[in-house]
Each structure stands twice: as structure tokens, then as C-alpha cells.
Amino acid sequence: MLLVTTEFIAGADIEMLGLVKGSTIQTVNFVRDFGASLKTLVGGELKDYTEMMNKARQVATDRMTIEASALGADAIVGVRYATSAVMQSAAEIMAYGTAVRFRR
Question: Residue 48's pLDDT is what?
């Protein structure tokens, strides 16, 4: 599945199939969350949170592509990501875009 952030694919004649999206809510465990709060005292990257967000983006992307595949899509254009905090130490990631099929 081709994923692009542009609204078109250069040289391709595409048929739009519709909006597709995928989302997940992820959190780190209490011990890692406590460790991260201590890390804020000295500064630096919060690696557990970075890993959590990378995993969440991948899960959301996978769910979006599964939805697009079910529509018979060849690609997703206009791919975007959104995030929001749903509670302390938990974040929702949403991936969305427009599923398209190549016209032959």
C-alpha cells in the first residue's frame, strides 16, 4: 500500500474511494511513568514515551491501511496524523487519509 502526504500521486490517474482512518490509545506502565517524571528534573529524552508514540503511530497506520485494503485501495493520499492526551500518561494517535484506486 502506497502512503503519501500529498493530495495526488504524480503521473497517476486515481479514483477516490473515501476517508480511511486508524487509531489507538497507548500508555506506559506506572513504573516507567514514575521514572519519566523523575527524568523531567534533569532533562533529556523520555525514551519510553518516544517508543510508545512510535508504536502507537505504527498501530494507527496499520489499522488505516487495513481499512483501505477492505475498500480495494491501492494507495492512501493526504495521510495525516493527529494526537491528543486522553488522560495523564495516555495518548490517542489517529492516522487518516483518502483511500484511492489507480485507474488503469
Answer: 78
Decide if 21 contacts 94 (C-beta within 8 A): yes
Q: Three-state SS for 2?
A: strand
> How far apart are the C-alpha atoms of 1 and 100, rounded to whole Å?
10
* Main-chain phi, psi angles of 95, to 5 degrees: -110, 135
- pTM for the model: 0.82
Instruction: Specify the range with the lowest mean pLDDT, choosing from 10-24, 38-52, 71-85, 88-102.
Output: 38-52
CA geometry: angle 62, 27, 89, nearest 5 deg:
135
User: What band does 61 get if pLDDT is binned at 50, 70 and 90?
Assistant: very high
C-alpha–C-alpha distance, residues 80 and 100, integer Å: 15
